[in-house]
Design goal:
The complex is a heterodimer of chains A (111) and B (113). With 111 residues, chain A is mainly β. In chain A, 0% of the residues lie in helices and 58% in strands. In chain B, a hairpin with an 8-residue loop joins strand 9 and strand 10. The chains are: A mainly beta (111), B mainly beta (113).
Chain lengths: 111, 113
């Protein structure tokens, strides 16, 4: 059974700092990996989608990498801002169109 | 605007009552999903559907039921058999095919009173 783990569970950083969020998965047989952002009481907003054949994707200050063979992905946020404060979730896409989620990392960026 | 609409945003259920959560999408996506989110936990899959008139149980389907009579709609019923229904419920959709992106609605918060 595929399991997805996110480390750390919570992170608090000062504004302007670069940071890395980690996501690991137990079975490398995935189609893609997706990073989401969730604000309190809201739905999920897709940030980046990395196909299994890709190594990384970039969008603005965000960069996500994927090492499928080792079962790891990282989300790099450059020059963090208070508006980046949210919960970040990763999800892997499996055969049969299933999505399996990690528990998320709660990020707080202090001004 | 294209997207996924969940309603209502807040829902209160009395003990022993069935309630239905609505999920509608106009993205022309074949696959739709229902997830449950509890505080401090990730999303757990309740049911998913890859095509009209077909759906599969997820990891925590007991006490829930769904239907998929139209491509655009995937309602979730929380039955009285679900003993701990208080949670945040999220609906998602995506195109079928390898490696497609998933999109989510804004969620429904269900509380037992």
């Amino acid at each position: 059974k595929q399991e997805v783990t996110q480390i750390p569970a919570a992170l608090s950083v000062p504004e302007g700092e670069n940071l890395v969020l980690n996501c690991s998965f137990t079975d490398s047989a995935i189609y893609n990996l997706q990073w989401f952002r969730q604000d309190p009481g809201k739905g999920l907003t897709s940030l980046l989608l990395i196909q299994s054949s890709q190594r990384e994707q970039t969008s603005g200050r965000l960069n996500a990498s994927l090492d499928k063979s080792s079962g790891r992905s990282t989300l790099y946020i450059a020059a963090s801002q208070p508006g980046d404060s949210a919960t970040y979730l990763c999800a892997v896409s499996l055969y049969g169109n299933k999505l399996v989620f990690g528990a998320g990392t709660i990020l707080r960026v202090k001004s | 605007d294209g997207g996924i609409t969940q309603s209502p945003k807040y829902l209160f259920r009395k003990e022993g009552q069935n309630v239905t959560l609505s999920c509608e999408q106009n993205l022309n996506h074949d696959a739709m999903y229902w997830y449950r989110q509890d505080p401090g936990q990730g999303l757990r899959l309740i049911y998913y559907s890859q095509i009209v008139n077909d759906f599969q149980k997820g990891d925590i389907a007991e006490g829930y039921s769904v239907s998929r009579e139209k491509k655009e709609s995937f309602p979730l019923t929380v039955t009285s058999a679900q003993k701990n229904p208080t949670a945040f419920y999220l609906c998602a959709s995506r195109s079928t095919g390898v490696g497609t992106e998933a999109f989510f609605g804004q969620g429904t918060r269900l509380t037992v009173v």
